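Action item from last meeting closed. Structure (139 res):
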């Protein structure tokens, strides 16, 4: 009895790239989602203008957002609301895990430095060596 051949034999050296394309597409989607999550930790708000200084980005800083709410301010760390009294302890716990952690403070343009000063003092009390205040370049 003769056997039927449904598929012709492939020539040697031929590679099916479909699984490789599938894996690449999954990686692209993964990096898009991770990038979006990283961007969400930095709120879109107008920052103070700076006439001098250099553009500097530290590796994975701890981002602290200061947002005005009427006559008070709201402090957020990694999209979680934090009370001012608990801020130093949270920073101290983060720097205990990673001593080289720097802090980036992002405050709304309409706030005075007095609102930012308490956060800077909490960073210093926690023993942070590097504190950056985010600004936008001036005209």
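Sequence:
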């Amino acid at each position: 009895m003769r056997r039927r051949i449904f598929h012709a034999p492939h020539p040697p050296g031929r590679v099916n790239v479909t699984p490789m394309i599938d894996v690449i597409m999954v990686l692209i989607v993964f990096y898009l989602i991770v990038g979006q999550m990283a961007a969400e930790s930095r709120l879109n708000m107008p920052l103070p203008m700076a006439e001098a200084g250099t553009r500097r980005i530290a590796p994975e800083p701890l981002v602290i957002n200061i947002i005005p709410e009427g006559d008070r301010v709201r402090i957020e760390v990694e999209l979680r609301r934090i009370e001012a009294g608990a801020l130093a302890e949270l920073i101290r716990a983060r720097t205990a895990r990673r001593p080289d952690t720097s802090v980036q403070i992002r405050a709304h343009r309409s706030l005075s430095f007095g609102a930012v000063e308490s956060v800077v003092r909490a960073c210093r009390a926690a023993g942070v060596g590097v504190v950056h205040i985010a600004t936008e370049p001036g005209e």
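Note appended to the action item: The chain has a mean pLDDT of 80.
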